[in-house]
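# step 3/5: fold
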Amino acid sequence: MKTAILGYPRIGEKRELKKALEAYWKGEISKESLEQTGAEIRKKNWLMMKAAGIDIIPSNDFSFYDQVLDMTALLGAVPERYGWRGGEVDLDTIFAMARGKSAVQAMEMTKWFDTNYHYIVPEFYKGQKFKISSEKPFREFREALALGVETRPVILGPVTYLMLGKSKKDNTVPLDFLEELLEAYVSILGKFGSIDAKEIQIDEPALVVDLGPAQRSAYKKAYRTFAEKVPSVALTLTTYFGALGENLKLVASLPVHGLHVDLVRAPKELSAVVRAIPKDMTVSFGVVDGRNIWKNDLKGTVRFLKPAIDTIGSARAVIASSCSLLHSPLNLEHETALDPETKSWLSFAKEKLGEVRLIRDALLKGEEGFSGELGRNERDILGRRKSKRIHKKQVAARVAAVKPKDLCRHSPFRVRQPLQRQRLRLPFFPTTTIGSFPQTADVRQARAEFKKDMLSADKYKEFLREKTKDAIRRQEKMGLDVLVHGEFERNDMVQYFGEQLGGFLFTQNGWVQSYGSRCVKPPVIYGDVERPRPMTVEWSVYAQSLTRRPVKGMLTGPITILQWSFVRDDQPRALTAKQIALAIRDEVRDLERAGIKAIQIDEPALREGLPLRKKERPSYLRWAVDAFRLAAGGVEDQTQIHTHMCYSEFNDIIQSIASMDADVISIETSRSQMELLDAFVKFRYPNEIGPGVYDIHSPRVPSMEEITGLLKKAAK
């Protein structure tokens, strides 16, 4: 019985990758220095996994930006506008695709399944050719081998890759490119075989979504092709983020060496998997959660798996993380400020290595040989369940008291709209920004000095007031109509609120990658959520006192706070969302009482939280929309409620977005060239829309013609 990890965090324990990337983009370090940082992170990860007793260690899970973009580079699927002329796709071309350059737009970016990780969307054009155009995965395999670590290279599977992409400028669909793509994949697998890679991890997370006949056919064709043309390469087909469901029969029929299943997300599927797989197929049991930070119930996991192991035999079993540990913080050892009780509940990426190994050892040798470690774990699990810090009677009573009328505004939008227009007196095409201004070096320095008691509270507050005043004056000078205060007092759009709400705890170094150099430090929701006091009112009132133009109150919505946190797993997510919504509702009402005329409740993660299976979506959308309406529903008709969403496809949830009943929804549309507005046109969205025309995730400055062109598309 072996142990496996599907992928490991690549940011470095001190976010070395982030710092090196941003220094390279500013021209402060050389490409060689950047690549050396990457090599050091990879080396440390490989040696750490080997020392932890992991048998199957991944390579090619490292990326300087995004693993889907790396696959695009490997296949040579670089859009013409980036001026690539063949040969190796270099780092600068990869960064141009991700971030844009001068007059060339970046490729579209969206969420990786239902996570807060972003990937760069592949683009396919008529006549598209694919061929090996990067040595990265082969180079990294040899790099590990030179360190004495034999790895299992990871690549994204061909069908998932096509399903994640978009066809451009013609009537083709991504699966039309399968034949040509498979030729390139055969070359890739053959090349791995030539350098003695004994097994390849081929990720096909699209197998946990609803598949049509064409997609099922594509899977059969792809894996039969590999079996025929590269029979010497052992493929482990890796699925995660959900149950295989009706796709299990298809998967079991594919000619692959092994199958990985996510038993954290789909524990009820264990017996069906064991019954369905052929007798010569290995099974990788994903039982250690790669997406949350709670300690594994080791005894429970061992007893859960034992009947399956007894059925298939230990030689065919692999104990693994549920998915890549990319979505986990790195190392709990660095959390010196957490109190012992809450720290005993947690497990980060490094600790999860030990959990995987211990589960395997206890299955092989029996629980009695590990009674000390299993006993300590059992005490920690029970301690969390019984902790008095988790449940609050007053929160439960308030949730129980919510009535249907609490989810509704007083009047429909057609009544509210003229009242808001009369109050705000905005021109046609009113302009605004989404909220936060840059956290510049002086802001970060002042915050750091304040935290270290090197700057007094009064001095820090005076500094923030000056920054806010400057932001208001800048916006007035630019001629913006609805202003924001800049949020200089905030560290992160979720962390800032979590730090002021009950039921949250925070780590010092619990960073995870969101995309490229963007790292976030998700809060941990461990208990019932409540708002002890106002969180934003003081800064909103101060900013509004500086101008006659409306200044938006800026809040993060309940679903985004839920999605971008590590969430407690001892109650339904819907209940936690309702608790957060009530806390935000209190803040919304306090802002209104303080004279704030427009309040933005950001929900960029609403689409991200959508279940991958269609049959599970109506339930989620009901409680997610209800949470937003509960947060926003307590204000008067003349108060304008905004929301914001970004990097999402809206076609399949547009009716639910309308049901949120926000007065204004602003959405990112510049990268998609207003394509995302199509959903709002076909549905005839009833309320007001703010189409985003300036991509803030790219360093390039769009021309006036480009922005007016986007506005004309939007107006049409």
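# step 4/5: annotate
The chain is about 40% helix and 15% strand.
# step 5/5: archive (pending)
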